[in-house]
Amino acid sequence: MTQETAPILAVEDLTRKFVKNGTVVEVLKGLNLTIRRGDSLAVVGLSGAGKSTLLNILGALDQPTTGRVLFKGADIFQWNERRRAIFRNRNIGFVFQSHHLLPEFTSLENAMMPALIQRMSPRRAGEKAADLLTALDLGDRLTHKPGELSGGEQQRVAIARALIMDPEILLADEPTGNLDTETGGKIQEILLELNGNRKITLVIVTHNEKLAERMTRSVGIKDGLLYELR
Ligand code: ADP
């Protein structure tokens, strides 16, 4: 398969074991999943089923015990850590349930951070971050620090930070989990729009059934295995 025709992400026979209090827990027991460019995929399942574990492995924040994760056909766990760090930085955007913003930095600085790490010029990074924050309705919050923002605003800063490197894939772990229904609804619209307009491939772990229904596909995790819901 060439790079062009390969799925953007594929998981093959993925297992992940953890050692917890001296016992081995097999959380993922042989998952297979193919994600095509432009898909929007909801991952559902009970708490503890392994959804975050899968998402973290897809984004190379964690490693499989066995099995492969292919990005456009290339096995990301065959790469060295430096190459994988570049993959995380350039190809993947992460949005978590809690925003993980740095409290001592402003919205603008938080959103710029991944670009500065990649040595984009501060001027260019600043312009890009300001554009993204403005598009997310935060144009008048650029110099606010996270503690001065509402939960929904903080999550929008986190989305700007996830988008600063123009990732092809956005991975979101319960992105509306800490928000009230109305604010969560707005974040949901933003994520769906990114998929619709920018064609960003979206993988969202969510308990929110309404959100899952609006995505092109849903999969569930149960007993360490994945099943197609829709
Ligand atoms: P979900 O996202 O579906 O709620 P998780 O992927 O967070 O589930 O966790 C699945 C299981 O794996 C849980 O039992 C959790 O305690 C365990 N687990 C996750 N990460 C670790 C870790 N780093 N060390 C030990 N156990 C872990």
Describe the protein.
The protein has 230 residues and is of the alpha/beta class. Helices cover 35% and strands 27% of the residues. The protein is built from seven helices and ten strands. The strands form two sheets. The chain has a six-stranded mixed β-sheet, sandwiched between helices. A four-stranded antiparallel β-sheet has the order 2-1-4-5, with helices on one face. α3 (107-117) runs parallel beside α5 (151-163) and α5 packs parallel to α6 (181-198). The longest helix is centred in the C-terminal third of the chain and has 18 residues, at 181-198. Adenosine-5'-diphosphate (ADP) binds at residues 18, 20, 25, 27, 45, 47-53.
Radius of gyration: 18 Å
Q: Find the count of extended strands (DSSP E, 2+ residues).
A: 10
The residue ranges in which pLDDT falls below 50 over 5 or more consecutive positions are: none
Give the overall shape: globular
Broad structural category: alpha/beta
* Span between termini: 26 Å
Question: DSSP helix count?
Answer: 7
Task: Summarize the helix and strand pattern as letters.
Answer: EEEHEEHEHHHEHEHEE
**Mean pLDDT across all amino acids:** 95
User: Strands across the major sheet, in which order?
Assistant: 6-7-8-3-9-10
Oligomer: single chain
Roughly how much helix do the residues carry, as a percent range?
A: 25-40%
Ligand list: adenosine-5'-diphosphate
Strand fraction equals: 25-35%
Instruction: Please describe the biggest sheet, giving its number of strands, its sense, and whether it closes into a barrel.
Output: 6 strands, mixed
